[in-house]
Amino acid sequence: MLELILSTLAEFGLIREDYKHRKRISKKEKEDGTKRPIQKYLLQPSSIMVISLLVVISISSFVFFGYQRKSIYPDKTKKEIAEISDRMENWNQKFGKYPTELNDLIGNSPLRQGWKKDAWNREYEFKITENGKGFLITSAGSDGKFKTEDDIKSK
């Protein structure tokens, strides 16, 4: 109820400010005889508030998604590679060798279907190394290219 009362008062205040703004601009128009449609309609307080809100939302979105790409995605991918590596070691202990493909490790488990791709929604590169005694799981990282500095690799 309090929220409704406050929002109603804010609306009336904004409407009143818009009215006063239009009245002031109309007075200037009558004094010098030039029309001011941009000043009259686009620069009224309610329009300025809407434009300001859109600018703030746009900047916030840009910052959030940039932060997500540079900070959250690499951490998420590192954790996922660590999980896959643990699962690989368990597979090796159980069967005496590593699986030849990542799909063998994933199997039909719906929980592990996300292991096919990293946080950027790109396929992992999977290799068995040292004649079957080791493995390497690589994510292309934020640039999407393998064999660059931002690649994320298993240990």
Please describe what this structure looks like.
By secondary structure, the chain is mainly alpha-helical. The chain has two domains: 14-65, no CATH class; 73-153, Glycoprotein, Type 4 Pilin (2-Layer Sandwich), CATH 3.30.700. The protein has four helices and three strands; from the N terminus they run ααααβββ. The chain has helices spanning 2-32, 37-42, 45-95, 102-106, and strands at 125-129, 134-139, 152-153. The chain has a three-stranded antiparallel beta sheet, with helices on one face. The radius of gyration is 29 Å and the shape is elongated. The mean pLDDT is 88.
The name of the CATH topology of the largest domain is Glycoprotein, Type 4 Pilin
- What is the number of beta strands? 3
Determine the fraction of residues in helical runs and give it as a percent range.
55-70%
* Sheet with the most strands: spatial strand order: 1-2-3
- Per CATH, the superfamily of the largest domain is Glycoprotein, Type 4 Pilin
Q: Estimate nothing, just give the exact number of structural domains.
A: 2
Distance between the termini: 58 Å
The assigned CATH architecture of the largest domain is 2-Layer Sandwich
What general outline do the C-alpha atoms trace?
Answer: elongated
